[in-house]
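Write out the 3D structure for:
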Amino acid sequence: MNKTGGRADGLTVCVVMVLAFVMAVRPSGRLAAQDSHFGIRGLGTPGKWESVRARATGGAFAPFDPFSPVLDASIADVRRMTAGVTGAMSWRSVNAGSTDATLRGSRFPALVIAGPLTRRIVIGGGFATYLDRTFGITRDTIIDLRGVLEPVTDQISSDGAISDLRLALAARVHTHLAVGAGVHLITGSTRVVASRRFADSTTYRTSTTRDEVAYEGLGGSASALLDLQPDLRVAAWVRSDGTLRADVQGRTTAEDDLPLSFGGGVRWRAGARASVAGAVAWRKWAGAGANAHDTFNWSLGTELGSAVSPLRLGVRGGQLPFGVGKAPSEFGFSAGLGKQFSGGRGRLDIGLERLERKGNGLTERVWTFLLGLTVRP
């Protein structure tokens, strides 16, 4: 009976891995995959460095979760080689004055692999989405051609993202204290297509230009976890990212300052079947361009029930960095479930997140379905 149950659990984990991969990379069909419109006027939309477990708690548990790429110190709790992967599918409705749009997108926002080097030192790495750069814009206007007014339609599309590749080390220097540090390679590319179509198509041809923009930057991070009491843990982190360089055909076309970021969190275990956490983060985006703003974000969340099958709830709020005038606002809530398989060697996490973003005549409402898998061979 035990062998049969073990084989069934193992098969379940394999099936879940396949489903997670398919969900993450499947094409979005006839609907265009687009990220937040609030990233169009800047470098993009910042990604959420959170596993499904943490995101289902509004991000509140991210500083204490080894598979959320926020704190390097958190991987000190990993006792065996373990991998965690996150997939997300979003449905987005956008209202910009008299214009409404419905969009859908699939993403593979985070992967973390970690394992011990020695009894006290753990090494980890992986990737996370740093900035989303997928969008499409259509604008109707009138231009003057040799004294004649001609109606035209301009279309600009960008497809790609900027990723954060991380290598981290964490050490438990004391029973109650863990520290960590990481280096980050910020890299990625976008394919940009711009076209102009004339209303008088018999006289004027449609013109189109295509370019691929490559991005590169470096960053570093440091963090600590401190157990004040057996049931009370606090976290603190700081990260400094340098300059993001954009190259087109080997020529640098832009250089933008990336933010200095810092934050912290607190987690309290209210008994064996309940935990409560809160987290805050500040990011100094104001140096990244004319439409950039510093941001503050907060989150509160809880995890209820046993470790085998917990229920998670969370709420979050704050700002987005890019927008005309003041920083756009973001508010959301989330919920999720977890389930362990194969005697704790595999864990499936699902979550549902609802976000509302507002700023300068633009409103976005986003539903996101989250699927995560953690595997410990």
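Helices lie at 2-25, 52-55.
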